Amino acid sequence: MSSPNLPDVVLWSIPAFVLLTIVEIVSVRIHPDEDAAGYETKDAATSITMGLGSLVFDFLWKIPIVALYTAVYELTPLRVPVLWWTIPLMLLAQDFFYYWSHRGHHVIRILWACHVVHHSSRKFNLSTALRQPWTSVTSWPFYLPLIACGVHPAALAFCSSANLVYQFWIHTERIDKMWRPFEYVFNTPSHHRVHHASQGGYLDRNFGGILIVWDRLFGSWVGEGERPVFGLTKNISTFNPLRVATHEYAAIARDLKAATSWRERAGRVFGGPGWQPAPAAAPNAPQKVTEGAA
């Protein structure tokens, strides 16, 4: 089957990204919300730089990934045609696997080292959506089932791009909770504010891309209550794009250097972001022999 001719959704959306970001900045200036995180010039510049850098690095990472996907696609006897009625089904399937990829990138530290970039801003606005990692090579295993089922790599790329574009508009504090049926099915700014919050009850929640129903089905949904505090549980104090992109990898390297066992090394890499080795058991205190004991 020849490669399907599908548009580059991200490329076509860039003018809309720019326009909507400008509109949001103007709206914040005209009608500021004192409780909102708002904009900060250095933070927004870092987010935009991270986004531009991700375009370059994603292009490089795609070379080996596309080669692997193509090999799997050629090996499988299955084929999913790209038709008007299969595209929505492929979007649905891609969104399902995106949920598990996103969830995995929160609970496995080496994957979190990639995704933490997107959560590193203490602001939450449309420029935050552009703060993308430079090591997104970590996502490819989650979508192999789609390729093995006969989805063309180009069709998967289209669906992934559409998912990414959808998520742009949900990075805002300017939109309150929406129509209840829409909130129940789709990811919205309210749901995604929870996802970016650093409070304990909000951590590792609302992983959906386009749909929030996966979170409802798999027990990871939390509604927005108290106002979110954005950022990380341990925030970084840098606007240097290279450090933003690599700070968690550097932290993993330091932890591995200090580790004293292979079990600890494995935990530092494949455990959760907050994983700590179990404290060493205290030596048994000598038992006191009471008078009259046999």
Written description of the protein model:
- The chain has 294 residues and is mainly α.
- The chain contains 11 helices and no strands.
- It has helices at residues 9-30, 41-75, 86-107, 109-119, 144-148, 153-166, 180-185, 189-196, 213-217, 241-258, 262-270.
- Helix 3 (86-107) packs across helix 4 (109-119), helix 3 crosses helix 6 and helix 4 runs antiparallel to helix 10 (241-258).
- The protein is globular.
- Mean pLDDT is 92; it is low at 288-294.
List keywords for this structure.
disordered C terminus; mainly alpha
DSSP strand tally: 0
Distance between the termini: 86 Å
Overall SS class: mainly alpha
Instruction: Give the integer mean of the pLDDT values.
Output: 92
Estimate the helix proportion, in percent: 40-55%
Helix-strand pattern: HHHHHHHHHHH
Strand content: under 5%
Q: How many helices in DSSP terms?
A: 11
C-alpha Rg, in Å?
A: 22 Å
Morphology call: globular
Q: What summary fits the major beta sheet?
A: none
Low-confidence stretches: 288-294
In short:
The protein has 294 residues and is mainly α. It is built from eleven helices and no strands.
